[in-house]
Amino acid sequence: MAKFLLLLLCALLVLVDPEMIMAAPSVAAGPASTEAAVGMPEPRPRYKRYRGNSRRKRGPIASIKRWGARRKTRRHIKALHRSTPRKGVIKVDRPIRNK
After folding, report:
1. What pLDDT, on the 0 to 100 scale, is given for residue 72?
2. What is the pTM of this model?
3. What is the pLDDT of residues 10-66, one digit of tens each?
4. What is the DSSP letter of 1?
5. What confidence score (pLDDT) does residue 71 get?
6. Measured between alpha carbons, how far is 39 from 31 in angstroms, rounded to an integer?
7. How far apart are CA 29 and CA 36, in angstroms?
8. Largest CA distance in the chain
9. Cα(67)–Cα(1) distance, rounded to whole angstroms?
């Protein structure tokens, strides 16, 4: 459908008279309007406003994500079972039995 519309547009452009398109501007516009147009700056095009880095970035593959979570959990468990004593715990020697 798009190709068909493109062909129709090209055929229409072929039929257009080039002299009509290249015709000089009418005198009614006059030099006053051209002077005003020269003095006025052209408006800048409006692009999308910058919204920070809010675009979603592609994350890691699910298997890699699970692997990372598993490593993190293992590290956490290992940290809980370290041989260093907890703070506030007083260790004493074994009691000596008298014979």
Report:
1. 93
2. 0.26
3. 888 888 776 766 666 655 555 555 555 567 788 777 777 776 776 666 666 888 888
4. -
5. 94
6. 12
7. 11
8. 128
9. 49
Q: Please state, in angstroms and rounded to a whole number, the distance separating the CA atoms of residues 25 and 32.
A: 13
Say how many Å lie between the first and final Cα of the chain, rounded. Answer: 106
In the numeric block, the tokens 């501007």 are attached to 25
Q: Is 73 helix (H, G, I), strand (E, B) or coil?
A: helix
pLDDT at 69: 92
SS3 of 66, please? helix
Place of tokens 């692997």: 67
DSSP 64: H
Ramachandran sector of residue 30 (left: φ over 0; alpha: ψ -120 to 50; beta: rest): left
